[in-house]
């Protein structure tokens, strides 16, 4: 099995970043030039695209995780930060209506989970839990909480 066939086999199962393919090719024992040529050929044929992978990650994580968590996943896959920022801007920031509905769903879920009626009257223990909950999902907890408090006024 040559490098191209191996990469096609991998890509038939799921999307991989160029960095992941390069790493897997080295693990399999292919030389650097064969790996680079194979990745270049796959990108020319549009079989492999880091941009498409970022779009897929954003779509699958939207509403569950915030920008920081999704960006961390992309960086772990070897996708450059500037590619992520470009795709994030085109996919998310231009669709503000979807973002507000996702935040509304997150707010409703947090209110149910932590039994919150008023975001101005949260005891410190519950506030810490809520901030951890938001931070774990990649949101800036303080900014989201401040936004929710302003919405209630």
UniProtKB/TrEMBL annotation:
Pfam families: RecX_HTH1 (PF21982). Residues 5-42 form the RecX first three-helical domain. Keywords: Cytoplasm. It is found in: Cytoplasm. Coiled coil: none annotated. GO terms for biological process: regulation of DNA repair. One of its GO terms (cellular component) is cytoplasm. It comes from the Bacteria. Belongs to the RecX family. PANTHER family: REGULATORY PROTEIN RECX FAMILY PROTEIN (PTHR33602:SF1). This is Regulatory protein RecX.
């Amino acid at each position: 099995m040559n490098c191209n066939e191996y990469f096609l086999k991998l890509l038939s199962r799921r999307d991989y970043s160029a960095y992941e393919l390069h790493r897997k090719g080295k693990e399999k024992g292919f030389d650097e030039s064969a790996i680079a040529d194979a990745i270049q050929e796959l990108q020319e044929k549009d079989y492999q695209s880091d941009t498409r992978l970022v779009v897929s990650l954003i779509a699958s994580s939207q509403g569950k995780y915030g920008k920081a968590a999704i960006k961390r996943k992309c960086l772990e896959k070897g996708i450059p930060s500037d590619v992520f920022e470009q795709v994030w801007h085109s996919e998310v920031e231009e669709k503000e209506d979807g973002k507000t509905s996702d935040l509304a769903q997150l707010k409703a879920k947090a209110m149910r989970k932590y039994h919150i009626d008023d975001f101005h009257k949260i005891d410190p223990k519950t506030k810490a839990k809520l901030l951890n909950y938001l931070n774990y999902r990649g949101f800036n907890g303080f900014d989201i909480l401040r936004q929710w408090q302003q919405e209630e006024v």
